[in-house]
């Protein structure tokens, strides 16, 4: 089949609930299996009935690949395996396999215990699901079955994030998941080799953004914190537990170390501590600095960052606190915010985007008074800062990745439709590549060129290569293989003519074409032959033209002159069917000679 | 063996085969006979070996020993060639050919013959491995005949034949050979160009290793003088897009070389008719490679950028360009925002969310997402994942900025950003780079603010780097200066050890910005128009900072002088006296110091000469002695007056002093009577001898720049002192003098060798010692001492060597601790406490002998070896006195922590910390003592420990361990 079919069940012109179905060469692959954080009903999971109306899906999906541990990329996995009933292989990297269950468990707790949902997967489900996972390492080529091969590449973004190269037969696809082309404090930049896939499926969260240098942002962030603690203020940084939190921790930790600061930094404990252990272990997945220095000291062994206790909220003096959740909508971060907001010395730094309706969003938009459920009104006098620390590739980064892996087609997912449109045009214009951006549920067919694999006998290849090497390489010179195409049961073989004859038990017959020309040329025949030789030699410069026994021979072409009468000469031209082209050329040459 | 090695080394690098000196040759022949026979025997064994494996073992043994007699060589080659022809295993054949290469580099080998033989053998060969090995052997042999162009021609022809081989390995070897041996220059140039073209064809080869080798050959040929043609440029540029990094690397180098070689050639841009200079195009290509997949290529590209200084400013400035946008709307980068804030006259609030909010909508068509040409190359390079690339980018940015002031101003923001890099080396490099370009740039307030933020850094390197940078930079406004001074004072408060560095920094800032300082003077000095303000404490480092700044500015701005209050003037004269190098001379009206001393031609050097000449011309020993005494006094004084001759004067004074001491010792009548020597009075003599020996060591080790004559004089004097010691020990004590005597004899030998090596005449005393010692058959202490005593007694003091201005004496100054702290350092007895030590060392010859000497009140002395990493070279700018000018590697700064520990004391006491040279290891056997491993427990009386500076007192108090908590 010369085409690749892609159907996004989620993340098609949308962010969240990444789930893309890919079928090529008779294999069906599910890329990511995420959930949507914005919904609380069945819409949060991808619509798996699309694959098959009911019953087990194992026979319809050959494998599932998870790019990284964020819930919008792996959140629906236990549901898919335990409740929908998929039993096939699941692939993810080692750090993802380690950290994903922590996040899944946390989400389950929130959903079941706080919101009281039923019909949600259980802890046991998560464990069972994880047992089915096959962990892969970077650049390890894994054969899922005899035809399907996958390989992971480093993607930055979060610890363990990977891009996957998937090959079936001669068709290949690269799925990026989320990736980051600029290194940060704890991770390196995404990297892929020139694998030239038929299709690159890239995320496009920041399709219309070109970002400023990371250093400026970091410096701003640090300067603001430093100023605040210098005047004795308290700094609150609401974060989500994993990913950016670690980056900010490292940033602050190294800054504290460099500046020899003594002000306490706290991190509200929780799942972070568990996750930190994994961060400490997967050093090979981090950036150059951490990898090089971990022998002396593991950067995730924070010296200045201590666990937070609720009693510290009222402690006097400067401090910096990281608290979850990131949008100030509930939990500890909100609690601290209520206490600290009325003091103008204090500061809150929002390191990421806030959804409309959350306290974080109100605060960022400059609300000076915030009312809570129980009619409690909090005056916001503390300074409010916004600092973007997102780890997605920007437009330039996406273009760079395309440049690196040189795909034949590009598909954009995981982004807003309007923004994708812009990038799509750009890709078309600058690379001349076909670019797709299917919506959820929309199937997209990518045509790929057909390549037919062929076995060639070694002898034939060697002979050709010897011939080819004899002359200096010239890209314009064609490389010709003379052979017989033999079709056996399922394979095609190109064989040497003699071998093929032998195998088929046929005697080899040679077909020779002969043609006679008449021309008028006084003088003896040898003189005419001499003239013709000069002519042919002049025209066929790179060929081996020789005179043997009164006849001119080039490869298998023979030209012989016989004199019948005084002035009339008959010229015989004869050639093998192999040298048909050459023979007819010489014949034509002789024919048109007089004109 | 050594001779053999030397000989082989010579054979490797030069063609001239030198005949070694005769006595050595004899030695070599003896050795050759033994080993030569063995290697030849191995070759014999080869014939008997049955399997290929055996043969290979034998060959390996030959290559391990590899010693042949010259007459054997031809035979060995013949036998090896014979074996080659009948061997089936390709590995063995390859080994034989590699042996040919080895044998060819032996002396006396017939290299052209071996080449001939190898080429012959290769003709019938079809194993790729063997051919490749043969070609590398040919290359090795060909290199041995650097001038033989005929052979080279022949070899190149052979190599060209093998280019049609199918194996990439063989092809690569061919290219290597062609690149190294193709005769270049002169008449053969046209031929060479043809070869170059042929080599160039192979950049289309299907095999990346061959492509890379072909390009590398072009590079080698170019470096050997065969200029590349500029027409290949377009072709080479295509190779930059190769799939393989080895090819891209070489192609990048070639593009760079072409850019440097033909900068002004015009070439057309691919998709338009526009013509641009080749160097500009090459620059654009190199810039593109900064986005390469491979880190090595990126590093290389970043390095090359810095050297392409010929590029047009237009392209250069694009390297820092990056258009930002957010959500399809144009956005300003932080740098641009900062710039706008400054130009609009309003200070950045920095408090608003989205003050970096995107502005106008951009046309989708106008945005170019692909970097084309040099656009944003440095932006990418500086943000790279790998520090190698970042480092190279910073270097390149700096070196380009040094050539283009406008670019320097633009690159400022980016360098300042690098202060925030996660790796300290990169930060330091950024600071250093900024220092280098600071003479082209003027700092704005916002930039300065960021820079000053880094002053809070804990790393002393960063801070001192910043101080250097600040002292070199130019500030734009009064506000800048004020901010700068405030931050420096803050820094000083936080890190008091930066005192001296801060002072120097402020001195330079003051000198450079007098007109900016003027309006700040009242504020800085807290001068009130009506009221008298309290007089600040002149010992306060922060106040000194301000004074240094103001006085240095006042030097260039006479109007400032009127502003000073009375106490400021008083403080001026105090500081001018205490730190003359930081406070300049000011022309104060009516003060006593209207004119400072102007340095005049003093002629101290002549004085030195004449004084010593007078001593030499003394008519009789008594006058001579008096003259010497006077000379010693004068020289010591002279050393303190004129720093230019200080070293020489100190050296002479010490030498004369030692001579006098020696004379006094010898004239003592006690020598006649051994029994009195051992008495109480004898003790004085013993102490004097120890002192004398220490003087000798000082003369020998404390000075740098000694001439050979000086050294010879010192050595001979030391010999004399040792003789005296030996005689004393033998006559006056009953301790064993065996070791001493041995050491003395060693010294005699050593001195004799030294003198004969340098071709110097020994002094009369030394000469007679040499004579006596050579006639002596018994080397026991008794007889030696017996014949030394009369020699000593008749000897006269040697004249001091001619003064040598180049001589410098080692000195050390301890900056920290200052010894002025009243509070005692408390620590638990038995545990350790760290005392930070900061010292500057000048003219230290061997830092490995330097020790920190800690002396406890119970007279216990410890010598602590400082870590090698605690020493850092002193750079010119932070050196205290620039008189000496040359910053040799003998000037060091020691920044370390001295670990102090002791048992419980009842009250706090002071310990002495000083720096000393410990020569025990260098002078092993000196004074008859064995070198001891640990430096702990040395006593003061050891002559091998030479103090470099006065001790500093540190108040410590070890507390008893608290029990039962």
TrEMBL record, chain A:
It comes from Diploptera punctata. Belongs to the metallo-beta-lactamase superfamily. RNA-metabolizing metallo-beta-lactamase-like family. INTS11 subfamily. Its cofactor is Zn(2+). PANTHER family: CLEAVAGE AND POLYADENYLATION SPECIFICITY FACTOR FAMILY MEMBER, INTEGRATOR COMPLEX SUBUNIT 11. One of its GO terms (cellular component) is nucleus. It comes from the Eukaryota. The lineage of its organism: Eukaryota, Metazoa, Ecdysozoa, Arthropoda, Hexapoda. This is Integrator complex subunit 11. InterPro entries: Beta_Casp, INTS11-like_MBL-fold, IntS11_C, MBL, Metallo-B-lactamas, RibonucZ/Hydroxyglut_hydro, RMMBL. Pfam families: Beta-Casp, IntS11_C, Lactamase_B_6, RMMBL. GO terms for molecular function: hydrolase activity; metal ion binding; RNA endonuclease activity. Coiled coil: none annotated. One of its GO terms (biological process) is snRNA processing. Residues 16-210 form the Metallo-beta-lactamase domain. Its main location: cytoplasm. It is found in: Cytoplasm; Nucleus. Residues 245-363 form the Beta-Casp domain. Keywords: Cytoplasm, Hydrolase, Metal-binding, Nucleus, Zinc.
TrEMBL record, chain B:
SUPFAM superfamilies: ARM repeat. The keyword Nucleus applies. Residues 813-961 form the Integrator complex subunit 4/Protein SIEL C-terminal Ig-like domain. Residues 606-804 form the INTS4 8 helical bundle domain. This is Integrator complex subunit 4. GO terms for cellular component: integrator complex. Keywords: Nucleus. It is found in: Nucleus. It holds the Pfam family INTS4_C. Its main location: nucleus. One of its GO terms (biological process) is snRNA processing. It comes from Diploptera punctata (Pacific beetle cockroach). InterPro entries: ARM-like, ARM-type_fold, INTS4_8HBD, INTS4_C.
